[in-house]
Amino acid sequence: MAEPADTQNLSLTPLNDLHVELGGRMVPFAGYSMPVQYPSGIMTEHQHTRDHAGLFDVSHMGQAWLIGPDHETTARALEALVPSNMVELARGKQRYTVLLNDEGGIVDDLMVTRPLAEDRDGQLFIVVNASRKDVDYALLREKLPESVRLELVEDRALIALQGPEAVAVVAAHAPAVSELGFMEADFMEFDGIACHISRSGYTGEDGVEMSVPAGAAEAIAKALLADERVKPIGLGARDSLRLEAGLCLYGHDLDETTSPVEGSITFAMQKRRREEGGFPGAARIQKELAEGTSRIRVGFRLDGKAPAREGAEIRLGDGTVIGTVTSGGFAPTLGAPIAMGYVDAAHSEIGTKVNLVVRNRELPAEVAAMPFVQQRYYRKPKN
Amino acid sequence: MTTYYSKDHEWISVDGDIATVGITNYAQEQLGDVVFVELPDTGKTVSQGDEAAVVESVKAASEVYAPLDGEIVETNGILADEPAKVNEDPEGAAWFVKMKLSNPDQLSELLDEAGYKAFIADL
Fold it and tell me: What pLDDT band is residue B123 in, cutting at 50, 70 and 90?
């Protein structure tokens, strides 16, 4: 029943000692030894994040800068690889996007931030998936023009604090964080340590992701954990939280064959890019935008208590196979199983009755709106 | 009544030719929060090593194998409504099935409590 914990040849994050000290159960993930849960368990960690503030080590993710002579040049260079509007991304703003292959398939999904500081004009900060670092960096090195270089950030950890109380907790150490709106970022000091903090995350809650010097990561994490509103959260709850929020996990819900239209992430494509194209696979993606796709990612709520997981076949009542589940599990907030997957677009309407096949048994479910749990991102009051 | 243990982390409590089977405390700790338990139908005949039940935790599904040959004569209805009982009382109230053993000689292949403790200490 126990999974073999082959911890050989795994990279360790700067918070590894702390995970062990906190009783984290370490598992291999994307080449790193990471905590899947702490002693309190996934359910408790999940609910704590929804109610208070959860601390996540996301140092395994790739941090890098794209550095060019001016914003226009760097943004245009990135726009040649992604379908989002980078040129008009304002200073201090962050945006979700995807790297595309020539067929319009998704190579990775990532966050891009344009620094607020004017002396960083021409720079974009990116955070990519741990499992895709090598692929992404090779693609960027190959495709970026000579005027824009990729500079990896390998001496910084990445710590996320997520939940309704997260920003208040961070503000006690870095007051400037309160000034950030959702998907905004800036450099600021945390107890005198220079950090780059964005107000964003992967849980559907308000919160931050903090890029911090590797050597200060443990001190910062401990300072956060000293606040009684904060508990450490492992990968298990990270997955259940993002699933409830309807967010994709690369390699599961998105891959090199899926386009942004099929993946239901066209929110990442701003108007100008949709109209002008000019990104890899534009012909396919623009056609899909105009005419629709044959398959599309949707959410599911199951009638019973048994979860359906990745790989489960999706059938109509008459037995016709219409797709496959790409992520699924138990939603602690709802107390019920949920899933997402790809179906024939003809059967993607919300409310469509389907069966998810688990161990040769058909579990009744229906296509459901996502997010499954209301996102509670911070909205800045309008002046 | 004698209690045996399997290397698949089941406990088997034997009374005559009826064995009550559940998963050990070690197993529930490894699985984490249990959210669903799928039990076999009563009357089903199973052979040692067959998949007899499935435990779904938040993160994964895990099979529970029949530790012995026999017929399922009763399943624990409590688990349908309260799967978390597996975490709270795995070696008591959260038993999975009762089996009528058809090959009691297989009991000799199982561990006793001391043997099981030694086995998990090495994991």
Answer: confident
The parent domain of residue B67 ranges over 2-118
> How far apart are alpha carbons A73 and A171 in whole angstroms?
35
Q: Where are the domains of chain A?
A: 1-293, 294-373
Q: How far apart are CA A112 and CA A97, in angstroms?
A: 7
- Which of A1, A43, A306 is the closest to B33 by Cβ? A43
Question: A312-324 b/e with 16+ CB inside 10 Å = b?
Answer: bbbbeeeeeebbb
Task: Transcribe A85-145 into DSSP letters.
Answer: --TTPPTTBEEEEEEE-TTS-EEEEEEEE--S-GGGTTEEEEEE-GGGHHHHHHHHHHHS-
Whole-complex ipTM? 0.88
Token pair of A253 as six digits:
């819900």
- The class that CATH gives domain A294-373 is mainly beta
Helix (H) / strand (E) containing A74 = helix A71-79
Q: Which of A2, A236, A305 sits opposite B58 (nearest CB)?
A: A236
Q: What is the CA radius of gyration of chain A?
A: 21
Q: What is the CATH number of the domain that holds B83?
A: 2.40.50.100
Burial label for A267, CB within 10 Å (0-12, 13-18, 19+), is exposed
CA distance A309 to chain B (A): 8
Q: Would you place residue A379 in the very low, low, confident or very high pLDDT band (cuts 50, 70, 90)?
A: confident
Residue B123 lies inside a defined structural domain of this protein: no
If DSSP codes are grouped into helix, strand and coil, which group holds residue A333?
A: coil
Tokens of A277: 């194209």
Q: What distance in Å separates residue B32's CA from the closest CA in chain A?
A: 6
Model confidence over B3-52: pLDDT tens digits?
Answer: 999 999 999 999 999 999 999 999 999 999 999 999 999 999 999 999 99
Q: What is the mean pLDDT of residues A49-71?
A: 98
A308: nearest CA partner in chain B: B61
Quote the minimal CA–CA distance from A51 to chain B in Å: 19
Residues facing A329 on adjacent strands = A338
Inter-chain CB proximity A1 and B35 less than 8 Å: no
pTM of the model: 0.94
Integer-rounded Cα Rg, in Å, for chain B is 13
CATH class of A1-293: alpha beta
Partner residue facing A1 (CB), from B9, B59, B87: B9
Distance of CA A298 to the CA centre of its chain: 17
Number of domains in chain B: 1
Considering only CB atoms, which chain A residues are within 8 Å of B58?
42-43, 46, 236-237, 240, 329-330, 332
Dist. CA A144–CA A139, nearest whole Å? 8
